[in-house]
Amino acid sequence: MTDHHDSASAGSAAPPDLAALRRRLAEFAAARDWQPYHTPKNLVAALSVEASELVEIFQWLTPEESTRVMADPDTAFRVRDEVADVLAYLLQLCEVLDIDPLAALSAKIDRNEQRFPPRSAGPARGAAPAPGGRPAPGGRPAPGERPEPGERP
């Protein structure tokens, strides 16, 4: 077992807010003259690579094993590290494109709440749509429809 320092659980200090993290990332890039490389295209590509590295951790696990991934300290460290990389590139992309990520997420949840109303009763309540499908009225995916990224619960 590797001894990894987990600053997220160390001490009782409150975590930094989103604005502070965005500033730190911008200052980090500026201090290294990386801004010319932080184009939307490059940031999206890097985000995809980091998301793939996160997927790689879970790729060959069973669904049951994936729910216990944080029980192993080494694997938990890797998951936190890749989540941080994904979030860092996403925040940098938001900075470059002048997107408020929390406002964008809130608006997306609002749209999803309208598009996917809760079922009032029945055993399928809370069921996710079928892979590649969008729930139609009554909860079944509409033929040939695919959700936008992030639409499924």
Describe how the helices and strands are arranged:
Elements: H1 18-31, H2 40-58, H3 63-67, H4 73-97, H5 101-115
Helix pairs in contact: 1-4, 2-4
Strand content: under 5%
What is the name of the CATH topology of the domain at 18-104? Answer: Helix Hairpins
CATH superfamily of the domain at 18-104: MazG-like
Alpha carbon gyration radius:
19 Å
Report the sheet with the most strands, covering strand number, pairing sense and barrel closure. none
SS field, number of helical segments: 5
CATH architecture of the domain at 18-104: Orthogonal Bundle
Global structural class: mainly alpha
Mean pLDDT: 83
Report helical residue fraction.
Answer: 40-55%
- Order of SSEs: HHHHH
How many beta-strand segments?
0
Envelope shape = globular
Top-tier CATH class of the domain at 18-104: Mainly Alpha
- Give the low-confidence spans: 5-10
Give the distance, in angstroms, between the N- and C-terminal Cα atoms: 35 Å
